[in-house]
Design a protein that fits this description.
The complex is a heterodimer. Chain A is an alpha/beta fold. In chain A, about 45% of the residues lie in helices and about 20% in strands. The relative contact order of chain A is 0.15.
Chain lengths: ~280, ~250
């Protein structure tokens, strides 16, 4: 008896050690297995990057973390009741609402009726200013550039107060300069506001610049976690110094090696399959 | 200015067509002058018949406006319900598919038998015609709402009034409005037909009345008047539609 109580206490404590724990999660779409036996944890305050080629199921995992789809088997445990915000690639905002209205709409659901419309608008303005969009409060998404839209989406994610922000290739559609600016912004937010971030990308350099830890996925289907790698560079990182350093080049090549190994294996497999079919 | 230039050729074609009419009716004897009266007689009829034409317009709008209003309320309301409740939609959609393609005029016998006045019966028939395109447009619009909008709605926890008015209706508005456009055109057709048979007044009745006396100058005046009214209403509707869907045509700086 005593033992079991201790055990259950211990497991409760364990659950509290991490923000999210993903335990032997499987996901399939029809007959196709998309994710196979995924185990990982997201730590409080960390910047976790999910990385892998397209089709590796990393976005699927993010959707499950966001409770937008359910695992076929396995568990996803949260340390607190589900409270998170999501930033998608280029469609987070409602195009018929201004930047401000988009945020007010989100805030209204969160804060119920505790604040007046005026107060909600002030909050929205505050967060839009934080992401340097103070000048575009009344603009509709259709009037903004891709970078501005992503800034507004980030502002909305921050405004609702969730300390967990999930981002699904949020900078994938941006030009290189805007991309760098937004990477810096999100790093600053992760650091200053102590928000935990789970970020999906297939860009190696983006992963290295942003991540505390990188979860590498093998090309699917089914996608598997092949490795979880700590990024060995101190934060804050100086982009220019980092990119010129030998360590960075080696680390990048190492990551690409891990990723390409999976890709080549996959290619060989499909060649075997297709030549088999030929006979 | 640009618009005027854009339509300058159109304008010359229109002038040319009127010119041909003038030439054939006034300077040749190719056509029957009773059925194809000269322009001067048509203008004369238009001026003399104008008070009646206006009265007809008011009377027709008295049927059309309540019918369109009713079909907007019930079409969008019902469409919202069935668009958002898959189970109910699956159960009833065979009925939708059976009844929606039927010409509304098929229901005239029952409308006249069951409703106390000709006016109510006409409104009912117009309503049936206008209801289906709006109702089905709303259901289709909801079914085609981009999955991204649903994802956002879910992660933001948007519920209740905001869910309907800030997400579902704007997102499905393109299809609701295209259904409404179809409903408008269809109800003009039904309106004209209905008035040509049973009405005592109205835009269609005017044309039918003078046909009985073979006064084709008045018939043509009526047709021209009706065309102008219908065109004006359609243009106004397109303006409203563009305004509601403003967010689809925005340009980034």
């Amino acid at each position: 008896m005593v033992e079991t109580i201790e055990l259950s206490q211990k497991s409760e404590k364990e659950a509290l050690q991490n923000k999210i724990e993903v335990k032997s999660v499987h996901f399939s779409y029809g007959e196709t297995e998309i994710l196979q036996d995924i185990n990982l944890e997201v730590k409080e305050g960390e910047f976790l990057v999910l990385m892998g080629p397209s089709g590796s199921g990393k976005s699927t995992l993010l959707r499950m973390l966001a409770n937008l789809s359910q695992p076929k088997s396995g568990q996803i445990l949260f340390d607190s009741p589900l409270d998170l915000a999501v930033v998608f690639q280029d469609y987070s905002l409602f195009p018929w609402l201004t930047a401000e209205e988009n945020i007010v709409l989100a805030l209204k659901q969160k804060l119920k009726k505790t604040k007046t419309k005026k107060e909600l608008q002030q909050l929205a303005e505050q967060y839009l200013t934080l992401v340097q969009l103070g000048h575009a409060i009344k603009k509709y998404p259709g009037e903004m550039s891709g970078g501005m839209r992503q800034r507004a989406a980030i502002a909305r994610a921050l405004s609702v107060g969730s300390d967990l922000v999930l981002m699904d290739e949020p900078f994938g559609a941006l030009d290189p300069l805007t991309r760098i600016q937004l990477q810096d912004l999100i790093l600053q937010i992760n650091h200053d506001q102590k928000r935990t971030i789970v970020f999906v990308t297939h860009d190696v350099e983006e992963a290295i610049i942003l991540a505390d830890r990188i979860v590498m996925f093998s090309p699917g289907p089914p996608g598997k976690v092949v490795d979880v790698i700590e990024v060995p560079f101190e934060k804050p990182r100086n982009r220019k110094q980092l990119f010129n350093s030998q360590e960075f080049v080696e680390f990048r090549d190492y990551l690409l090696g891990v990723m390409n190994k999976g890709v080549f294996e996959k290619l060989n497999q499909s060649e075997e399959v297709s030549s088999g079919e030929g006979i | 200015m640009l618009k005027l230039k854009q339509y300058s050729i159109t304008f010359f074609i229109a002038v040319g067509l009127v010119g041909i009419w003038v030439y054939i009716t006034s300077f040749t004897s190719w056509v029957n002058p009773v059925i194809f009266p000269p322009v001067s007689k048509i203008i004369d009829a238009f001026v003399k018949g104008f008070p009646d034409l206006l009265k007809g317009f008011v009377s027709s709008m008295g049927l059309l406006v309540p019918a369109i209003f009713l079909s907007l309320v019930l079409g969008i309301g019902g469409g919202l319900f069935f668009g958002l409740h898959q189970k109910s939609r699956e159960i009833l959609s065979p009925f939708f598919h059976t009844f929606s393609p039927l010409p509304p005029t098929l229901f005239i016998p029952y409308a006249i038998a069951l409703l106390p006045t000709f006016k109510l019966a006409s409104i009912f028939i117009l309503f049936i015609g206008a209801f289906w395109p709006i109702f089905l447009g709303t259901i289709q619009g909801i079914a085609l709402i981009d999955n991204h909008y649903w994802d956002n709605t879910k992660t933001l926890g948007i519920k209740g009034k905001d869910f309907i008015f800030k997400v579902v209706l704007p997102a499905s508005a393109p299809y609701i409005l295209s259904g409404t456009g179809t409903a408008l055109i269809l109800s003009f057709i039904v309106l004209m037909m209905a008035e040509m048979f049973g009405a005592q007044s109205g835009m269609g009745h005017f044309v039918q009345y003078y046909t009985d006396f073979s006064q084709y100058d008045y018939v043509l005046a009526g047709i021209i008047f009706n065309s102008i009214i219908i065109l004006a209403i359609i243009v106004a509707f397109e303006k409203i539609k563009k305004r509601i869907l403003f967010w689809m045509n925005l340009k980034s700086e």
